[in-house]
Design a protein that fits this description.
Layout lengths: L1 H20 L1 H10 L6 H6 L11 H8 L3 E5 L12 H4 L8 E5 L6 H9 L7 E6 L11 H7 L2 H9 L5 H11 L3 H6 L1 H9 L5 H34 L3 H9 L9 H15 L9 H8 L18 H16 L2 E6 L4 H7 L3 H18 L2 E4 L18 H16 L1
Parallel strand pairs: 1-2, 1-3, 3-4, 4-5
Helix pairs in contact: 2-12, 6-8, 6-16, 8-12, 9-16, 11-12, 14-19
Length: 399
């Protein structure tokens, strides 16, 4: 009788383990049934809030050879009609961008996004912002708003990442309250991951069954959100993209640049800082206390450089083909607020050195600090800025 009972319990445990480990492939298959021709391109051309921390739609986009994932932060919502989702809508040069990120999506979050995917041989662009590089790096609030436990679990299970890379990411994640307080099981795994002592390994093993249950729940949630997002995509656009009806050609880059200059003259005329008129009037005009407010602001030291190094290591482990983008700071505004030129130049040079160390392609726009109409406000590229980034990305895609 005892043997039969143990056999039944063992079978139940085996069935349970098979069920939770099969959730990922099952949800991937279910979502794939919703991804008809035209869906990925339409998803690339439409912002989908709430899916940045998901993996299924991003994974489907990454598998598409005509899609370039672009990881970034708040600059991804700027640029007007020259934002890459708008300019490349309809695949005028044969590809579309898939934007991943919004405000606060800094290097550590991007490392998780990348670590949760299979990027082997995939060309991917990553936009860097100087304002991330404060002393402490990403703050608790920004981290909590962008952290994905699903990505963290997927990172730990990734067969591409080395144990050292995973362990260093794990220790970094443990520095944030969102992980410690909201995901205690995940935190237990992270605390004991990668340690060679027997006690840590045994503790990690005891946490994994609970972690697998939480991961399965997150995978189901991701599938539901992804299907809901697909259902809300414009049906007409999907149909047009399916048959290639929206395919268009771009006029020359030089003519497009003239358009951005004309627009810039009209929309950046009420201030000497190269800031959009409306933004300047609403956010800067009546704040004289901003003058010389950044005289003591330092871009060094910063935890963000360590996070950027982690991101670069993840991409190297994955075998990705990354293009890093250095956005410039607005030189006119920096001179007004007093942000030292030496700090800015040291930041640019450090990014160059890090990219060179890993052998990564770098689209460096740091020389555009004083380029009229390149920036749209104090820290984000405007129409002209995004157009130049678009052109550089287009050249990289076709190389």
């Amino acid at each position: 009788m005892m043997n039969k009972r143990l056999t039944a319990q063992g079978f139940a445990i085996l069935l349970f383990l098979l069920t939770i480990t099969a959730t990922g492939p099952t949800t991937e298959w279910v979502v794939s049934q919703w991804i008809k021709p035209g869906v990925i391109q339409t998803a690339c051309e439409n912002a989908i809030p709430g899916l940045f921390g998901g993996t299924l739609l991003q994974s489907a986009a990454i598998k598409s050879p005509d899609v370039l994932p672009i990881y970034g932060s708040s600059e991804l919502s700027h640029g007007g009609s020259f934002n890459p989702t708008k300019l490349f809508s309809g695949k005028p040069t044969g590809w579309v961008p898939f934007l991943v990120g919004h405000a606060g999506t800094e290097d550590l979050i991007q490392a998780l996004y990348a670590g949760a995917q299979n990027l082997k041989g995939k060309k991917i662009a990553l936009s860097l912002s100087a304002q991330w590089f404060s002393i402490g790096g990403i703050g608790q609030k920004e981290f909590a708003a962008n952290f994905s436990a699903l990505d963290a679990y997927k990172m730990l299970l990734s067969p591409s990442l080395t144990t050292q890379t995973k362990g260093d990411l794990a220790q970094r994640l443990l520095q944030f309250d969102q992980v410690q307080k909201s995901y205690p099981v995940l935190a237990g795994l992270l605390k004991n991951y990668g340690h060679s002592d027997l006690r840590s390994r045994l503790i990690e093993i005891t946490y994994w069954p609970m972690g697998r249950v939480e991961l399965a729940a997150l995978e189901i949630q991701d599938a539901v959100k992804t299907i809901e997002a697909i259902q809300h995509l414009p049906g007409g656009e999907i149909a047009n993209n399916e048959i290639g009806k929206l395919t268009k050609t771009l006029v020359s880059w030089s003519l497009l640049e003239q358009t951005t200059i004309t627009d810039g003259k009209a929309t950046e005329s009420n201030n000497p800082f190269g800031i959009n008129n409306k933004i300047y009037s609403e956010q800067y005009k009546d704040k004289p206390n901003l003058k010389n407010s950044q005289v003591k602001f330092n871009l060094f030291p910063s935890k963000e450089y360590e996070d950027l190094n982690l991101l670069m290591r993840v991409l190297k482990d994955e075998g990705a083909d990354p293009i890093f983008i250095i956005q410039p700071l607005n030189g006119f505004w920096c001179d007004y607020t007093g942000l030292p030129k030496a700090q800015r130049q040291k930041y640019y040079e450090t990014i160059r050195e890090m990219s060179d160390q890993y052998g990564y392609v770098l689209d460096d726009f740091s020389g555009h600090e004083y380029d009229r109409y390149f920036m749209g406000d104090s820290s984000h590229p405007g129409e002209k800025g995004w157009l130049e980034i678009d052109e550089a990305l287009d050249k990289s895609v076709h190389q």
